[in-house]
Amino acid sequence: MEKTERSERSEILSILVSNEPGVTAKLGSLFARRGFNIDSFTASPTNDPKLTRITIATTGDDRKFNQILTQTAKQEFVKTIDIMGKKSIYRELLLLKVKADKRDRSQLKEIVDIYRGRIVDLSRQSMIIEVTGSSEKIDGFMNMMSCYDLIDVCRTGVTGINRGDAGISDSSDDEE
Amino acid sequence: MRVNGSQLVMEILLQHGVDTAFGYPGGAALNIYDALYEYSDRIKVVTAAHEQGASHAADGYARATGKTGVCFATSGPGATNLVTGIATAFMDSIPLVAITANVPDSLIGRDAFQEVSISNIVIPVTKNTYFINRIDDLEDALYNAFRIANSGRKGPVLVDITKDVTAAMTNFKPRKPMPLNPLPTFSKADLKKVADMINASSKPVIYCGGGVAASEAGPELLQLMDKAGIPAAHTLMSAGVIGYDHPKNLGMVGMHGTIAANKAFDRADLMIALGTRFSDRVALNPEKFGRRAQKIQIDIDTSEINKNVVVDVGITADIKDFLTQLLPLIKENGHEEWVSLAMGWKSTTGDAKSGDAELHPSEIIGAVCDMTDKETIYVTDVGQHQMWSAQYLKHEHTRQFLTSGGLGTMGYGYGAAIGAQVGCPDARVIHFTGDGSFHMNLNEGCTAVSENLPIITIIMNNQVLGMVYQWQNIFYDSRYSSTDLHRKTDFIKIAEGFGAKGFRAETPAEFKEVFAKALKEKGPVWIDCHIAKSEYVYPMIPGGGTIEDMIIG
């Protein structure tokens, strides 16, 4: 291995693990004790009932990523671990409740339309907005909403899949 | 066959060749202990004074015999008392299967009496954990536990079983243990690259770690040293892999390592690291460690490659497998000039008699070596006596020196000595300890007496917590915070209180006399050796330092 640089970067990891009790606790414990960041963590079932897909957004330098990958890969319950490439498709879901009276509604509707979001619930004093997209898009939308009176913000965290015919672990994608 | 959960545990232990286990009974473990009673003709269970002692005993048994250590504990405090032993085994990659009983599943999560989620507590210090609350999951968990503990880099696995499962009935069809995970593969190109680097080097040095012992690669290592003319230094974990009097053995490397080993590492142009993690007690300054050398690292655990020190070539492989394939590619070379230069540095040593008492640790250890045979097993606790034992013992073979290297567990020694003596009844076990470490777990004296184990405990008694005291002297302006304790413990009376023998020694002649008596005893003996608190461990390189910072004494 070449001597590596120490510049921090963000990456999305896609980890396939056994669907058994305690797996998320074990993975979370590993990240905590080894000093790995978790910027976002999602877990969900897959097409195989024995497997769970965990998607983690994390940051580190080359050396840290080497540790994250090898320490995670050696866990008994981890089947595969991949760094998702830049060209993969990522999505996050945002549900947001904002104070909105009659005067705000049309203005908010305009912003939601620009971000291709939807207003999914409307009350006299508030509305619930749903936006799906890349984390950058959600960040951008949140920035626009920052001048409103937000009641609750719920983001799912990022999940991702690679383009083309191959499964996540079958291709090297556009990794460096 | 029709069995209950506890009988199933016994049957699976038998399938894995387990005939000895260590533990402590309790409420939730009643069914398991009832099965141990039933199977007592085939599985001997040694009951410790404290679950921590049982966990260290299972670890010492595993280190001395090469088999898997097994320990049992009940729920709650029984289980938490195992944690230090499990962590000790984890840090030193020792195969251990810990089986705990938990409260019945109907009470789980209700803060029931003696309920604790041990399978969650030990996640960071195990290779895997299982919480079993369904009888159908028990068989696979136990088979997997043994496979995982012994596959790749070895280590502990915990299986926690709810009490209802230990009583539930099931069918068991005996089957052989699962095959271990396959060894990592490496390419011919990797082999050739390493061989080329070794063949081209003029000042090569081998950095031998515990992985060499774990993969039983001692013979191959000696062949490489001989064929390519490479001097080697060992870590604390691999003391004994290279015989103490081998003409190319530089001795131990690291903070309290030899001048020769540390100097050779500093001057070498090629460092071959085998089964070692460049720990902070060896690579004290990771930026300057082996600064003139190209580095090759071979380890069975990929995550160790480049973890602490960035190397030029890192290969994931079993050490024995790798060396066996590497040897034919190595050209014969004597490196006479380099070997004689490096080995010449061995003539300078640290001060072996820095204390102002009549008895010095180097004399105690020297006498022990002179008066015991090659098969003797040495076990240590943690502190100054541990380093003296590493430095002065005449290590002859693998599995002869048992010590808590990674975790540095004070109180490890007596339990581990019990495990080693139970596992190796034909070898004599000598337990070196300090008055600080021994105070932690000397309660296992009762176990050594119950089992009638002829363990000789040598207490290097300097009346202080010596290693910390030494640091306070050197780095904290002699402010002896909580290390000079003015304890009035009479170890001879305690030994006698347990039903063991106790002796005292204040001079080398007295030590030899009482040690000779101790060797004739059939049960446990303690020897209280009075050494000076001014006796320090030398040489010493402070943390973060290099060879230039070495204190010789």
What key attributes describe this structure?
heterodimer; A: 176 residues; alpha+beta; Alpha-Beta Plaits; 2 domains; 5-stranded antiparallel beta sheet; 4-stranded antiparallel beta sheet; 4 helices; 37% strand; elongated; disordered C terminus; B: 553 residues; alpha/beta; Rossmann fold; 3 domains; 6-stranded parallel beta sheet; 37% helix; 17% strand; globular
Topology:
The complex is a heterodimer of chains A (176) and B (553).
Chain A: E1 9-18, H1 23-33, E2 40-45, E3 51-60, H2 62-73, E4 78-83, E5 89-99, H3 102-114, E6 118-122, E7 126-133, H4 135-145, E8 150-155, E9 159-161
Antiparallel strand pairs in A: 1-3, 1-4, 2-3, 5-7, 5-8, 5-9, 6-7
Chain B: E1 2-4, H1 5-15, E2 20-23, H2 30-38, E3 44-47, H3 51-65, E4 69-73, H4 77-80, H5 83-91, E5 96-102, H6 118-121, E6 128-132, H7 135-150, E7 156-162, H8 163-167, E8 169-171, H9 188-200, E9 204-208, H10 210-214, H11 218-228, E10 232-234, E11 249-252, H12 259-267, E12 270-274, E13 294-299, E14 313-316, H13 319-326, H14 336-344, H15 361-371, E15 377-380, H16 384-392, E16 401-402, H17 412-423, E17 429-434, H18 435-441, H19 445-450, E18 456-461, H20 466-475, H21 491-498, E19 501-505, H22 508-520, E20 525-530
Parallel strand pairs in B: 2-3, 2-4, 4-5, 5-7, 6-7, 9-10, 9-12, 10-11, 12-13, 13-14, 15-16, 15-17, 17-18, 18-20, 19-20
Antiparallel strand pairs in B: 1-8
Helix pairs in contact in B: 1-2, 1-7, 3-5, 3-17, 15-16, 15-22
